Please model this.
Amino acid sequence: MTTVIHSAQLVTAGTLTPDAWIAFTDGVIDGRGTGTTWRTLGAGQVIDAAGGVLAPGFIDIHGHGGGGASFDDGAEAIATARAVHRAHGTTRAVLSLVTASLDDLAARAAVIADLVERDATILGSHLEGPFLDPGHKGAHTLSLLRPPDAAAVGRLLDAGRGTVRQVTLAPELPGALAAVSQFVAAGVAVAVGHTNATADDAFAAFDAGATILTHAFNAMPGIHHREPGPVVAALRDERVTLEIIADGVHVHPDVVALAFTQAPGRVALITDAMAAAGAADGHYELGGLAVTVTAGTARLDDGGAIAGSTLTQDAALRLAVGHGIALTSAVDALTRIPARAVGLEDRYGALESGRAADVVLLDEHLRVRTVWVDGIRV
Model:
């Protein structure tokens, strides 16, 4: 059966088309246009968007959980957390795993590999650790951090069975550049993060094949007029996508706007959400570390560092647009750009013929009205 959604402000691939419609059949986009031309299709289901914003399904390449559940805690917890974010427009996600022992991290990557086989909305795993700088560890267990080596990298890749989609590492660590090459050769998108890297260290990683900056500005040196650091390196390198947590806590909205200005078409709005996203304030655990969430902000009990977020991607959209980012650019940063960052731009992230019918309908306040995944209303 063909479904048509009409009378929408269609936002996709960097453009806004008023009074637009899309059609999808068997989970795939198979037409779009403007006005009333959809009437010739003989659709089985017709939905009036009533002027709402119609966008591709959001793609989160960096999040840890939600609804009181963590992606580290197995298939049932993953299902709980994914349901929360799906209701906020995130139709596909890379599941981020915090630092753990190699045994535990390999087991968790294997669980996600199993899930990928039966749930195409899970795009694979993101190993955020253990190859991180101790001085910029954030909410990662210090005793479990380690430099990368070929055996450890190989073990994690084997456990993921081709589903490790992204890895974050500190490029200044011994063996890190060789690890970048090893991960890239296996088809993994490598991100620089949780790092004390200089700009030269970051450029060396980018030259070795790294293409992402993990939650830019956080857990890394900031911009200094004599020591530009990894953020400036990423802003200047056209090969690099910058992850941004647009929750008003991790990065000031003016700095979010600066990133969009200085790296147009290269910002991916992520959540970095932990279990408290879509849940109440209170006490939680992230990677074995105690976390308290107060007024929606998560911080470690020991030391007070920010410990992930309680963000959803629709809220990130509202913050970005509310601080002057063009709607087309903000939607791109939730859809096409993250898809491209992990090598899936040909399948997801745009409402074009032949793509998956992952669709989000928002109201005039950019709040989610309806979500479709593979053409099924969820």
The chain has a mean pLDDT of 96. The first strand starts at residue 2 and ends at 12. The domain at 2-55+352-377 is CATH 2.30.40.10 (Urease, subunit C; domain 1).
